[in-house]
Amino acid sequence: MITEVGHFSLVLALLMSILLAVYPMWGAARNDIRMMSLARPLAIAMLLFTLIAYASLTWAFINNDFSLSYVAQTSNSLLPVYYRITAVWGGHEGSFLLWITILALWTGAVALFSRPMPLQMVARVLAILGLVAVGFYLFILLASNPFERMLPFFPVDGRDLNPLLQDIGMIIHPPTLYMGYVGFSVAFAFAIAALISGKLDSTWARWSRPWTLAAWIFLTIGIALGSWWAYYELGWGGWWFWDPVENASFMPWLVGTGLLHSLAVTEKRKIFQSWTILLAIAAFSLSLLGTFLVRSGVLVSVHSFASDPTRGLFILGILIVTIGGSLLLYALKAPGLKGQGQYHAISREVLMMGNNVFLTAATMVVLLGTLLPLVHKELGLGSISIGAPFFDQMFTYLIVPFVFLLGVGPLSRWKKQSPAALKNQILLALGLSLSAGVLINQAYSTFSYLATLGSVLACWIFVTSVQEVVQRTGKAFNLNALTKLTRSHWGMIAGHVGFAVTLMGIALTSQYSVEKDVRMAAGESAELAGYQFVFKGVKPLNGPNYTGTSGHVDVFDKGQLVASLDAQKRFYTVQRSMMTEAAIDSGISRDLYVALGEQLDNGDWGLRLYVKPFVNWIWLGALIMALGGLLSATDKRYRLSKVALAKKSKQYTVSHTASSPEVLK
Amino acid sequence: MKKIWLFILPLIAFVAMTVFLLSGLFSDPRYQNEVQQDRALPPFKLADVMQPAKQYDESLFHGQVTLLNVWGVWCVTCAVELPFLTQLKEQGIPIVGLYYEQELDPDFGGKSLPQIQSEITQQLSKLGNPYQINLFDQDRSYSMDLGVTGAPETFIIDKQGIIRLHHIGDVNQRVWQNKIAPVYQQWVNQ
């Protein structure tokens, strides 16, 4: 009964989305206030019906309703309740329901938090979000319905959730990632609405910014979680594999980062509108492409669920309508856009554009690397695979000029920057970062050029960030002056410093990690990077839906016990699959990592030991970046613009210009 | 004019990409063989789980149409289909079990073979024994060859040892009448 309510609600939500796509858009074209005012209530109704549908599917999972074929495929009566709740998005159908629920959430949020926006703009934005939703509701109802019953004959028990997904990281990773992916739909809708209206002024950029930031924050955390999960759950000791699906989430992030910066320029300087619009379209298009790649099975990956071409075809149809349509609109409308601001060849505008170009280039590299194997095969040239070496090399080339500009950009002025004025700061920063970077790497017995390069780049960002704060606060460098900086300014600093922290982590851990495969009997010990790993033996393990073995390892540093690790190997009885649960002792400067392998014929155990320096910095940096996004998104001028009248927001524009650099000097 | 092209470029790039995605959608070999049908049974050499000294190979299936049922005592759904399979056996349909087990592996608490045998005997005496014999897929590599994704799964093997049907999930009255029996009859009559 409850699942029928859910199914029906989903149909109602589809109806709402159709109405939402049609009436407000029509009203906006005819300037009909009654039709335009339908947008908000329709968006809220769509959200409510979607939430009911989602809740009822969750109910079916909690109550083990195996008459639903989706529940029978992805759950099992032995599965603990919290995993039954997360199993809702453990398979194809449910993950799409989560996708559309999140789209409805964003649409509802825009409806609720758009009071000061002109009605016409709200109507268009919501209508576009509704239009995107129509495609996905249709897809769920027609091609991948999680409410499909297997009545009157249904299995007594389910086939269980994929053990890989039975993990705390997996509970939060997909929803966060989807929040980011789908969140770019809002920036997309704003861009399309602005294109339709032809009004691409700085107000559009200002409204769009907090939404873009919010999506970017979720995406940053989502990607970091995914990488962290891969690191400790897959037991391969790696944290990024350039897997097509990882790439699919990385591309919107790269473009989204470019979009954030480009929006800032458009808001403050009224230039680069057509570029910003293109990035907004690209960010969401790449999210859709990511969804297609993951769900259609075009690319073979650990992430792909079993899939059939009809579903892929349906998503491709949505892609063609959404991306093709918006790019067509772009081709028609964008050539007419003219920037208003003036700027010189060396100015903050140009430096930021430079970085946008590098971010776009990086996106292209990832896109080509991901799709080239497919294109190659389709052209009949045979199968090729593009792996980590290609990406690593390309990113090494790209990151040097990128980081250089990243450091100089915040130091420079809008409109025009004389190179001579920056010379001293740059030389000082170069000197400091070079010596710091080299010093850090001298601490390791095996000197690595790549790690040194990475550390120098990271230090360059640290140093220039400090220089920038000093420059902004003037000679009177004290706490009082620091509090004068706006939140969005601190957001920028945190974003950049976070990136530096991640970069430092990547450089050090990828060059200085050591690993060792050993065979050990209980009581034996092995040495790695100065640590003594003592194997204490194994004991059996009994979980709710798995059995297995747990191996105990004590780690000593100069005779001191520093970690006591239990590496597990689990066997999930219903799905008949093996999982390695690596044991990790995390620290600021290093991780100790033990994975249990196979038992050998003579009773010894195979163990894999790793010492990974600074690996946690990768995720710590991502957190700092997300925090930076949060600071920017909660800046006064966005918060106020939501409640204040248009007049008040004008005042803030004035006060904001007053605090910008060229007036300060 | 040159500038206009710049704005159309993204659209062109997208269209080109779509062509490849579309063709990629239909050419992926992963879609074939999802269900193993109309191919010869992969060669095997497996022991009888109750009498490990007895070895069988694919000639076991030659000469008659047989059901090959993949199961284990740990599998709830398998327990449910046992009584129905037993009915089928009583109608004279030959059923061979493929016993799918990992507990023998010392990695997993190390159940001994006699323990497994006694569990099987217990289960079959309780719910009915439809099997002529139970092949023991100890390291699960044969299930892998067959493309088994979980238990229970049932195959129809014809007189030449060719897989004619692969059914995922339990066998019950409905599935038997609608899906399995017609194929079974067709190959018996051939």
Output the keywords.
heterodimer; A: about 675 residues; alpha+beta; 4-stranded antiparallel beta sheet; 9 strands; disordered C terminus; B: about 190 residues; Glutaredoxin; 8 strands; about 20% strand; elongated
Can you describe this structure?
The complex is a heterodimer of chains A (665) and B (190). With 665 residues, chain A is an alpha+beta fold. Among the domains of chain A are: 1-166, no CATH class; 514-614. In chain A, 65% of the residues lie in helices and 11% in strands. Chain A contains 22 helices and nine strands. In chain A, the strands form two sheets. Chain A has a five-stranded antiparallel beta sheet with strand order 2-3-4-5-6, with no helix packed on it. Chain A has a four-stranded antiparallel beta sheet with strand order 1-9-8-7, covered by helices on one side. In chain A, strand 7 and strand 8 form a beta hairpin. The model of chain A is unreliable at 301-306 and 640-665 (pLDDT under 50). Chain B has 190 residues and is α+β, with helices and mostly antiparallel strands. Chain B has a single domain (34-189), classed as Glutaredoxin, CATH 3.40.30.10. Chain B is built from five helices and eight strands, in the order H-E-E-E-E-H-E-H-E-H-E-E-H. An eight-stranded mixed beta sheet of chain B has the order 1-8-7-4-5-6-2-3. The N and C termini of chain B lie far apart (72 Å). Classes of the chains: A alpha+beta (665), B alpha+beta (190). At the A-B interface, helix 11, helix 12, helix 13 and strand 4 of A face helix 1 and helix 2 of B. Chain A: Residues 316-636 form the Cytochrome c-type biogenesis protein CcmF C-terminal domain. Chain A: Required for the biogenesis of c-type cytochromes. Possible subunit of a heme lyase.
